[in-house]
User: Fold this.
Amino acid sequence: MELSQLLMEVEEVDWRNKCHERLEMLKIKQFPIAQDGSAPQDGMAFQQKLAIHENFLSFNLYKAIENGNIDKFIDELENASAKKNLPLSHILEQVTLAGESMLHVASFLGKEHITELILYHFPKLLNKRNIKGDTALHVAARSKNRVVVKAILTQYANDKSIYELEDELTRMTNEFGNTALHEAVIGKDLGVVEELLKADELAINHPNKSGRLPLHLAIETGNVEIHRLLLQTPFPVNDSCHQWHGNSPLHMAIIKGDLALLRVILSSRPELVYFRDELGGTVLHFAAHIGYVECVQILLKSSALTGMERDKKGNFPIHLACEKGHLKVVKELLQEEWPHPKVYLNQKGQNILHIAAKNGKAKLVKYLLRNKKIDQFTINEKDKNGNTPLHLAAKNIFPEVLFVMSGDKRVILNYVNNDGLNALDIVAIYCSLSLTPREKLSYWTLRKAGALPSMLTYHKFYRSRLESLPKGMKHDQQTVNIYLIVTALLVTVTFSAAFSVPGGVYGPDDPNPHNRGTAVLANKILFKMFTIFNTIAMYSSTIGSVMFLWERLGDDRVAEVAFGYATFCMCLGVLSVALAFAAAVGLTTSNDSFLAIVITVLAIFFISIIISIGVVAYFPYKGRNPLVIRVNRFLIWISCKFCRYTDKPKKLDTRERNMDAEKNE
Assistant:
């Protein structure tokens, strides 16, 4: 066995010596040096030949490389050089249509000996790039050929100075910013990755143009063996953080949703849990922000102290979870044995209830109010501007949050901020005088809970605005016009219904002259109900139409009173039409008991909805009877659930600027 191995080594040496000698002789043979005065002319003739020569790799040379026989390859080089009367160096400069040299082709095809021979005699080809910026090492790594990669790296390591590279070979990048290590990771070839890391471990810290390190790509491709190997390779976390663009390996595992991978990374490199992104947040901040509760649990087990780390804005992970309304994450974080929640303050002095309230997360606010760790101080705590959570909910016009908080007796409704405003003042100031349903709902939610406007605010803002408005402009004219159209339509419908009553009328040929022209079903109770409600709808709509016209008289007081009564008449007309319709349908289906029951149930259900909507829209009850208060809160709750105001008003920024301008004045 030892003898055969020795013979193979001797043959290898003989092969190398023979091939190197042949190529050296070929190089000398193809470089004639002129000794007479005709040299300039011969040189010019040579340059002209070279200029018209198409410098593309011939098919015969490509096939010789593909064949892998090194003697035939040298023979073909000699033939090509003699046939075209060109030096060997220019033959070696030939490229494919993709700009790949012979070294690229040999590396891609996995021809180790040819690759080694070219590298030894023409080292400058190692710096050659194809049209995508790939070196021969890139091509070899992409083709998953460990032997060729090792040959290139070995040849390069023997004498780096002769290659004239602008950087370390393993750190040279293509048009995408990928090193050979990137290409090997993408190709999922563990052997090639091992060879590249042996040659240069620091290549692991070089990102491509998309900011991806080889470790990122290993996680994205899901190759467990490669990312285990890369995790075992030393890399300076602090020095490389700026290159990660906020995506550490742990970030990538969380984005991918791979909990097993997350555990592997934490077990291999536990220090990564303290990595901070561009915003100064830890990985726990990121997991809390996206609401990945399973990742939060794993990260807390790895290092619970990261839960008390702040980002650049002073936010804890629980702040980011509250901002997005991730209830499960907040529950998980509050279970930890940390200091009291009142110490969770960001740079604005806001606790977690502030964050949840100002972002409209009603379910989370409700949970926090019920949590034993949230005491009355936390509920009414003021930030640096003097705003409590209730102030911030009012400032951002979140009626459901206001509803939840105002229902808690521990919430102090009339606390004032640094501007001397309570929550009700803020809603009143930020609202336009022609209240939108959202603003009106927010206002009456606080009013029904017992909040009162401060006299200073009333005189300074609200009353001055009332007095400064031009006459006749207290209500949006478009709204008045729409209401006027609705009442006019109600008049038309009810008028028509009076002459097309259910069951019809007796004809002129009826034997009894007293019955002629009268309703056939006049003695039925449902018919009487139909007639009464249709009459109410007719006259209330008519009165409403006339009173809406009073809005245009130009008198503020008359317009205000007229609009209120006209709106009431319109609502009464709509309700009466619904009741008249129910009575008419019940009358015509009274002979079918099943259908009559279904119609009755549907009528009760939908008429209840109409009444509830009308009450919420028009009747802000001022009664303090406990039953009336309960009814009010129930109707407000229905309205909040129906509207689902979870986004901040679009005009909020404009209103804030206007308010700041008024304060400056």
Summary: The chain is about 60% helix and 0% strand. The mean pLDDT is 77. Residues 477-508+515-619 form one domain.
